[in-house]
Amino acid sequence: LLTDSTSIRFFVRRLAHDVGVFSTKTPLGWIPAHSQCPVTALFKNYGSNTETFPVTARIVRTNLPYDTVFSRTLTISNLEPGNIVESYFGDWLVPPNPDSWFVLLRTDLENDMLLRNDTCRVITTSAPLPLGSILGSWDFPRLGDGMNLAGITYRSDSNRFYLAVCDPNRVFSFPVAPEPELIPENFEIQNFFGDDIIWGIAWDETQPGFWLTHVSAYGDGCIAARYEPDGSFAYDTWDLTTIELGTWFAGLDQGPSGTAFAVAVGGANHIYQLDFNSKEVIRHLAEPIASYRACAYLGDHNRYLFTGGWNQHAITALDIEGRTVETKPLANLADLDIYRPTNPFPDSLIWAYATTSSQKNTIHMLSLGTTWTNIGLGAKPD
């Protein structure tokens, strides 16, 4: 309805025979090298008659020799007017070396009256994407009214990620999968201050179990508490306020030789390397001096630790001395941890899951901008 009260009516003419590609599903965007990827797409009948027609999916390298690495034709039967159908063409084994490809889709209805929507071309790549590139995102509104996500850690013996969730305090886990599904874990979460908020969480590989940081919501307390692999309280704690007055500790991650890194918030905003067993401070990194939250240890000399936070809306890579190597924008970052497969393919991308402090309780899958080969490891560190 226009401002002068004049109405306009639109009439769309539906052709008698018209089918086309509606969208590509997979592969699309970034895909892992040396993985098995389903080839799927959506097709629509835009016409006014029920149709049966062939559809083809091809995957072609974007550079020399421009060879076709996948090709398959299917028949869609009796697709009614206006309906959309998903077609699965089979699985494609992505080559082991990073590369890029065109995904080409085509419909071949013999008497199609509109050819413009019969084809579609998208690009997919297994080459490393820049630091902070989002590979996937999932919202979890059922966790609460927002800002419920805190720390995250990877547990290699179960191939699962564990989440510290607050308001109220809970721990969830999810497997490494295309669509993360959160499962509540039965943790005996303590309430040391009477107003505890759990934040950091780290899996201890050397003495299997979890460390969680408990922060007083209205006071100055901060305690690291150990929990057994089954979530029961291990009766082992460390008062972290003795390290630096006026601070609390956010992101945690295990580092070399059973030590851990912990991000202090307040004071000098140091990132500390700690020995939870002896309750000793080993050192603090030279940088950053900003108020960060996240903590993920990789171990490469030039990409030793990843940090960042929601104040700067950024993710930052630090070298072994703690100096900033690279910073990229990343909105609402809370924490992240790295996926460490047992024997990663050397040219595969190093990536992490990241929690955000956001209304939708969003978890991202992030590129860390490099491969296992590029950091000189070829397998998981330590």
Automatic annotation (TrEMBL):
Protein name according to UniProt: Uncharacterized protein
Organism phylogeny: Bacteria, Bacteria division WOR-3
